[in-house]
Design a protein that fits this description.
Blueprint: E1 23-27, E2 29-32, H1 36-47, E3 52-55, E4 67-71, E5 74-77, H2 88-93, E6 103-105, E7 110-113, E8 119-122, H3 126-134, H4 138-162, H5 173-182, H6 184-187, H7 191-202, H8 205-210, H9 216-223, H10 239-245, E9 250-251, E10 254-255, E11 259-261, H11 265-278, E12 282-284, E13 289-295, E14 298-304, E15 309-312, E16 315-317, H12 321-327, H13 336-344, E17 352-358, E18 377-380, H14 384-397, E19 399-408, E20 423-432, H15 442-460, H16 464-467, E21 468-474, H17 476-483, E22 519-521, H18 535-548, H19 550-554
Parallel strand pairs: 1-15, 2-3, 2-16, 3-12, 7-18, 16-22
Antiparallel strand pairs: 4-5, 6-11, 7-8, 9-10, 13-14, 14-15, 17-20, 17-21, 18-19, 19-20
Length: about 550
């Protein structure tokens, strides 16, 4: 396979470094943050004829979707690590495939080692999955088709809503009309289908899965998605929705599939940046924003930490709501009630992210020889009780004694990531508290947590610990410092019912607009939420373009 590498500060054109002190302007829109949603938003605005500039604090474009070398010869996706949710409309509009975008689908979805001799494989087609389930429960194998059908019906509703701005509560009749339009599909469902929707939005993952299956391994295979990026137990009400959120994506036209981006996740954002540059978008790296400037009740631009002020009548923030409103805007420029609610906005995903360089493939006791399971998601979380204990440990001690671990080994399908015969593995882990109890700091505990994760994998794959050459560690605090993810929250905010759809980030501001005119939100802290989807960037750009139209000006939109 062709070798690719991530853009680093050494490869960035000089005009994309931080600007000098002074005042610059002439931009129709500024994008704060060069993550994938910021790039998507910039693309649509530039395609509509606007002059756009992106300011990014790091020396590499891509936000949390970047590929970096973390040990000589070993490269991997640093934070986000796998593909499914990237919206097909965004892929098509940006012509990503024409620029080298390539995703290799997993041969099976997930592999769960259960103990020294048992394992479960998920995916590979319905008949194969039923045969696998029947090793644990004939009843569960029979229930699988109806379960998948129910899940897919509700997932289709989410897909239909993903590229639509939610109705903005507080807009009177207009909001009612918007809600009626978006609710039309729900209203057209059968009673049984509406019951499935209610179950998935309100129930805990355990309660939902108990209604379908009896086998602990089968419930664990599906329940894992309920705690991905979700600092909660599978017993927490509403956790079933997070399970659903992770299944409404697709890869190469196949619904619900997951895959590896060739070149790592950074390859996707490199391509997006190239597409944006072709449309004239200016990208300024090493340009951290210190303050969003406000004049009266309207945004006026931004001030960089270098002292440079950039004027613009439109600013779109591809950072989380808490970072934007608590750290980049003077509190006097915000309504007191709005600020109070933003401070109460929950941002905690309980995530610990690590990459490791390996001398050999892991040899799992239950399935030691190389195979398709090494190209899938390898899930160490053999039961819902295991997941619940991990959450309880984290709430009490700050970290799980036996963490929930998802391992991916992308070098099995992409030889650009590691030297020949060697491998890189992503370890995406739950549950690790954003703030440790008893005044402890993640700066002091990060190595202990990393050791605990390695030891957990070692229990299922003896010899794994000795195969680790190097490791790249990102605690919740590291994720906040490096990527601006407050609380280490990979979703820019918890995906709970009170922070979804029109209430993301809060009711009255669910349409990508805050209380300051001309200031928009285009990141994962808005609908439809976290994951590398591009949908928030797409939707925010559409609202910005509508607001600039003649009709928008006539009706007084911002």
């Amino acid at each position: 396979m062709p070798r690719t590498r991530a853009v680093s500060s050494d490869t960035v054109p000089p005009d994309e470094r931080a600007g000098n002190q002074g005042v610059s302007g002439g931009y129709d829109a500024l994008i704060v943050g060069g993550g994938h949603n910021g790039l998507v938003c910039a693309f649509y605005l530039a395609r509509a004829g606007m002059k756009v500039r992106i300011v990014e604090r790091r020396d590499i474009i891509g936000g949390a979707a970047v590929t970096e070398e973390f040990h000589p010869g070993f490269r991997n996706s640093v934070a986000s690590y796998t593909v499914s949710l990237l919206n097909p409309r965004v892929i098509a509009d940006m012509k990503l495939a024409d620029h080298g975008y390539r995703v290799i689908e997993r041969p099976i979805s997930n592999f769960l080692p259960l103990d020294e001799s048992r394992y479960l494989k998920l995916g590979g087609g319905l008949e194969r999955a039923q045969a696998e389930f029947s090793r644990f429960s004939a009843r569960d194998a029979q229930a699988l088709p109806a379960y998948l059908t129910a899940l897919e019906r509700v997932a289709d509703v989410l897909r239909a809503l993903a590229l639509k701005a939610p109705p903005n509560m507080g807009d009177g009749v207009k909001a009612l009309i918007g809600a009626a339009r978006q609710g039309r599909r729900l209203a057209g469902m059968t009673l049984e289908e509406q019951r499935d929707v209610l179950d998935l939005f309100l129930k805990s993952a355990r309660s939902f899965l108990d209604g379908w299956f009896e086998s602990d391994p089968v419930k664990a295979a599906f329940g894992f998605d309920a705690v991905v990026g979700n600092y909660a137990s599978p017993d927490t009400p509403g956790s079933a929705y997070v399970l659903l959120h992770h299944v409404f994506g697709e890869v190469n036209g196949k619904k619900g599939a997951w895959g590896h981006s060739v070149g790592g996740m950074g390859r996707i954002t490199q391509i997006m940046a190239d597409v944006c540059r072709e449309l004239g978008v200016e990208i300024s790296l090493e340009s951290p924003v210190s303050q969003v400037l406000v004049d009266g009740d309207r945004v006026a631009g931004v001030r960089l930490e270098s002292g440079e002020e950039i004027g613009a009548r439109i600013v779109a923030a591809n950072v989380g709501p808490k970072l934007l409103y608590e750290r980049l805007i003077d509190p006097v420029d915000l309504p007191a009630e709005f600020l109070r609610r933003i401070r109460a906005f929950k941002a905690e995903s309980g995530t610990f992210r690590m990459n490791v360089a390996l001398t050999d493939l892991p040899r799992f006791s239950a399935l030691p020889e190389p195979g398709e399971h090494h190209q899938s998601g390898i899930i160490i979380a053999p039961s819902l009780d295991y997941m619940d204990r991990a959450f309880i440990d984290a709430k009490r001690d700050g970290m799980a004694r036996e963490p929930i671990v998802e391992m991916l080994i992308p070098s099995t399908v992409d030889d650009s990531l590691a030297p020949e015969g060697k491998h890189v593995a992503s370890l995406f882990c739950q549950h690790f508290a954003p703030t440790l109890p008893d005044g402890r700091s993640w700066d002091d505990e990060r190595e202990t947590a990393a050791d605990r994760i390695i030891d957990t994998v070692e229990q299922y794959a003896p010899g794994f610990k000795d195969s680790v050459i190097a490791r790249q560690i990102h605690s919740p605090l590291d994720l906040e410092r490096k990527f601006g993810l407050i609380g280490g929250d990979i979703m820019h905010g918890a995906m709970t019912l009170d922070q979804l759809w029109s209430a993301r980030p809060m009711l009255g501001h669910g349409t990508y607009r805050g209380p300051i005119k001309g200031l928009y939100m285009c990141g994962a802290g808005t609908h439809p939420g976290g994951g590398v989807s591009g949908a928030p960037g797409h939707n925010a750009a559409r609202e910005i373009i509508a607001d600039r139209s003649l009709l928008g000006r006539l009706v007084g939109r911002h």
